[in-house]
Design a protein that fits this description.
The complex is a heterodimer of chains A (about 100) and B (about 475). With about 100 residues, chain A is mainly alpha-helical. The two termini of chain A are about 45 Å apart. The two termini of chain B are about 25 Å apart. Chain B has a single domain, classed as Amidase signature (AS) domain (Amidase signature (AS) enzymes). Helix content of chain B is about 35%, strand content about 15%. Chain B contains 14 helices and 11 strands. Chain B is α/β, with parallel strands linked by helices and about 475 residues long. In chain B, helix 2 packs antiparallel against helix 3 and helix 9 crosses helix 11. In chain B, strand 7, helix 8 and strand 8 form a beta-alpha-beta unit. The chains are: A mainly alpha (about 100), B alpha/beta (about 475). The interface between A and B is large, with 49 and 62 residues.
């Protein structure tokens, strides 16, 4: 594993990827991140060279269903919890600058 | 310890209806000793009188519950029975917050499958219970609506994340309740509050409509006053669901025919489930429970080669954070809820670590390594279950800790849940049942774990233990 190099740059980049704004009084999270990363180093003690990872514990895979046409959530209900709507659409912040 | 065989007396004083178990409530309704309205009113009165002190509930339904009670069909399995639902189960027309301000005003557009089943069985929702925000924690201290308090001693925590449900049951604020467990969130608060929490096999109960935390281990299940009450709820909640691809292809679980004793059953006692930090009274109570199980006919075998739970703590920490960072990505304030600035510090901390462990350059070292060790944990259980039919141990190394214990500790929950994390990671069923009290009167829980899909054996052992002890009859003085 890494040497827990959670530098300021890595920390800020992680916050950006997480879409979170970290306030000045929350910078302590960086130290806690490093502590947790250090704790999990214990896994190094176990040899996993020929071990297959387990992503799913009850052995189900590729669960498919017939492509049947079913009723979906009515539009007014789907929009009912949004803070910003416009003409029957969800209104989002612009993602592309002109 | 004296083994008692004492049938539960049917308490039919109208003012005490809230104290009833599910079984007693059904008998009383059927024999017309009281009505569903009276039963619901009794629980609402109880909530009014004690919840200011305990904060078990985030939302109380009040009038709506009484209206539903008026029209209830008591011939249904849960007809007219008040139920408290953890606030991460989606409920149509009733606020669902997951105890986070992000969802402060969120009203779900559909019911969770489990809620649908419970309502179809006649249950009446009297409220939504408090929890650690997003189920991140083992104390309810991360709830944006303030912590719940332990009914046995309000200076102490109820555990979590389903702490509101466990406290509500212990304080008799409801007849039955449901919680959800990802790694201890049913069993640990049940242990700390002295009630019964039944965590089913992963996939036994549909996760559809339950706000996702760690999808690969999330398991909804009952928290009740007795083993039988919990088993009845599990029968109703279980079964395959097309809306949850991980739900197991089996008919709903049903209780097996009860055996008279545990003859021929081998029970394993892992020595590493008694870490050096364990509270001495917890150890003593569990060892006393071993003697009871032996008297009931079980052969108890010490297991000296079980994988140390410290590895499960690390695996859980990585996988839980990783899945959380993905599952909470959907909360952007566009379709529902407020924007991401409303996340509390615990959620931020977890999202950050998850994003870090999944990001380029760290994935192999953290996420993949943890998934490989998860395989070793599953294999370890497979090996142990070659030797024994079930495994028992303490649920938590301590009784309920004091308020404030979780503050500032980034891994509080992981350490508290160290003895239930291995079985959760492997998707195994388990139960927490009361097995004693410490010197200041706080409850102690015994856990029983079996291979996947062997809830029948969990039930048999737990029920026989309960039938022959009196811990579950104790109630806190409020």
């Amino acid at each position: 594993m890494s040497d827990n190099l959670i530098t300021d740059d890595v920390f800020q980049h992680t916050a950006k990827l997480s879409r979170l704004e970290i306030k000045p009084d929350e910078l302590y999270i960086k130290d806690q991140l490093a502590q947790a990363a250090e704790y999990v180093e214990v896994l190094k003690e176990l040899n996993t060279d020929n071990v297959v990872p387990t992503y799913q514990v009850n052995n189900k895979s590729n669960v498919l269903r017939d492509d049947l046409i079913q009723d979906s959530l009515p539009q007014n209900l789907a929009l009912s919890q949004a803070e910003n709507i416009s003409n029957g659409y969800f209104k989002t912040a612009a993602t592309i600058k002109k | 310890m004296a083994i008692l065989k004492q049938p539960l007396p049917l308490k039919n004083k109208m003012t005490d209806l809230f104290k009833l178990t599910l079984k007693e409530s059904k008998e009383g309704l059927k024999s017309k000793k009281f009505t569903a309205v009276e039963l619901v009113q009794s629980c609402l009165d109880r909530i009014n009188s004690v919840d200011k002190k305990l904060n078990s509930f985030v939302t109380i339904t009040g009038e709506n519950a009484l209206k539903e009670a008026e029209n209830s069909d008591i011939s249904l399995p849960l007809g007219g029975i008040p139920i408290a639902i953890k606030d991460n189960y989606l409920t149509v027309g009733l606020r669902t917050t997951a105890s986070s301000k992000v969802l402060d005003q969120y009203i779900a557009q559909y019911n969770a499958t489990a809620v649908e089943k419970l309502k179809k069985a006649g249950a009446i929702i009297i409220g939504k219970t408090n929890m650690d925000a997003w189920a991140h924690g083992s104390s309810t201290e991360t709830s944006d609506y303030g912590p719940s308090l332990n009914p046995w001693n309000t200076g102490h925590l109820p555990g979590g994340s389903s702490g509101g449900s466990a406290a509500a049951i212990a304080a008799d604020e409801t007849i039955i309740s449901v919680g959800s467990e990802t790694a201890g969130s049913i069993r640990q608060p049940s242990s700390w509050c002295g009630v019964v929490g039944f965590k089913p096999t992963y996939g036994r109960v549909s996760r559809y409509g339950i706000i996702a935390m760690k999808s690969s281990t999330d398991s909804p299940g009952p928290i009740c006053k007795t083993v039988d009450d919990a088993a009845v709820l599990l029968e109703i909640m279980s079964g395959n669901d097309v809306h949850d691809a991980t739900s197991i292809n089996e008919k709903p679980w049903i209780r097996p025919e009860m055996k008279k004793n545990l003859n021929g059953i081998k029970i394993g006692l892992p020595s590493c489930y008694f870490p050096k930090e364990i509270q001495s009274e917890v150890k003593a109570a569990v060892l006393m429970a071993v003697e009871t199980l032996k008297k009931l006919g079980a052969e108890v075998i010490e297991l000296t080669d079980v994988l140390d739970p410290k590895y499960s703590i690390a695996v859980y920490t990585i996988l839980q954070r990783s899945e959380v960072s993905s599952n909470l990505a959907r909360f952007d304030g566009v379709r529902y809820g407020h924007d991401r600035s409303y996340f509390g510090q615990e959620a931020k901390r977890r999202i950050m670590l998850g994003t870090y462990s999944l990001s380029a350059g760290y994935y192999d070292a953290y996420y993949l390594k943890a998934q490989k060790v998860r395989t070793l944990i599953c294999q370890d259980f497979d090996n142990q279950f070659q030797k024994v039919d079930a495994i028992i141990g303490p649920v938590s190394p301590t009784t309920a800790l004091k308020l404030g214990a979780a503050e500032g500790q980034s891994m509080f929950g992981e350490i508290q849940d160290m003895l239930v994390e291995p079985s959760s990671i492997a998707g195994l069923p388990g139960i927490s049942i009361p097995c004693g009290f410490d010197k200041i009167g706080l409850p102690i829980g015994l856990q029983i774990i079996t291979p996947q899909r062997r809830e029948d054996l969990v039930y048999q052992i737990a029920k026989l233990f309960e039938d022959n002890t009196e811990y579950h009859l104790q109630r806190p003085k409020l």
